[in-house]
Amino acid sequence: MQPSGWAAAREATGRDMLAADLRCSLFASALQSYKRDSVLRPFPASYARGDCKDFEALTSLFGEGTYLTSDLSLALIYSPHGHGWQHSLLGPILSCVAVCEVIDHPDVKCQTKKKDSKEIDRRRARIKHSEGGDIPPKYFVVTNNQLLRVKYLLVYSQKPPKRTSSQLSWFSSHWFTVMISLYLLLLLIVSVINSSAFQHFWNRAKR
């Protein structure tokens, strides 16, 4: 018997709090990402056929498939931070990179050398109808997703900057003036204490 919605949510939270939190964040981010149709204006005419907009062709420069890279810094460029669940323990602004396992197969297109040769295997370096030519180094295009499996998810959190009070911000902006004023005040107190008038008043007060 399948547990109810609330029971299933409590069970998932009890097993792994952060995993359940990440699911909520990914769901919230997906809800906010459906605005791409209104963001990209004007839409490139070569990728539009009447009222139909071919987003897959627009983002597939080297042919259709799932794009991967062996360079983490390159993957981070294509995974910018986005807004997720505002109450997430991981943070409201997240970036996610999938670490995948790929089978070495002809349907996985990349720059690889032929067996027992130093030449590039052109059959695996280019996909049919590719607009960008050969696949660049460190790129992999998987044309059959059955050869691909997600192993891990790398989650990067960008915490919002802490808001400081106006008093602290003013002090940090004028700290030099404040320190000079305190130093002058200290000199004034020392000079007053060492003056003859103060010594006379102090001696009379002690009697």
Describe the structure.
InterPro entries: ARTD_PARP, PARP16_N, Poly(ADP-ribose)pol_cat_dom. The chain crosses the membrane at residues 175-198. This is Poly(ADP-ribose) polymerase family member 16. Keywords: ADP-ribosylation, Glycosyltransferase, Membrane, NAD, Nucleotidyltransferase, Transferase, Transmembrane, Transmembrane helix. It contains 9 helices and 8 strands. It has 207 residues and is an alpha+beta fold. It has 2 domains: 5-157, no CATH class; 166-206. The strands form 3 sheets. A 3-stranded antiparallel sheet has the order 3-7-6. Strand 1 and strand 2 (52-53) form a beta hairpin. Helix 1 (5-15) packs across helix 2. The longest helix has 19 residues, at 175-193.
Please write out the topology:
Blueprint: H1 5-15, H2 17-32, H3 36-39, E1 48-49, E2 52-53, H4 55-58, E3 66-69, H5 72-77, E4 82-83, E5 93-102, E6 108-109, H6 122-125, E7 139-142, E8 148-157, H7 166-173, H8 175-193, H9 196-206
Antiparallel strand pairs: 1-2, 3-7, 4-5, 5-8, 6-7
Helix pairs in contact: 1-2
Spatial strand sequence of the major β-sheet: 3-7-6
Strand % is 15-25%
Shape descriptor = elongated
Major sheet size, sense and barrel closure: 3 strands, antiparallel
Structural class: alpha+beta
Helix and strand run: HHHEEHEHEEEHEEHHH
Oligomer: single chain
Ends distance: 93 Å
Spans where pLDDT lies below 50 across 5 or more residues: none
Q: Name the helicity range.
A: 40-55%
How many distinct domains? 2
Count of helical stretches: 9
Residue-averaged pLDDT: 76
Number of strands: 8
GO molecular function: NAD+ poly-ADP-ribosyltransferase activity; nucleotidyltransferase activity
Protein name: Poly(ADP-ribose) polymerase family member 16
Transmembrane segments: 175-198
Family: Belongs to the ARTD/PARP family.
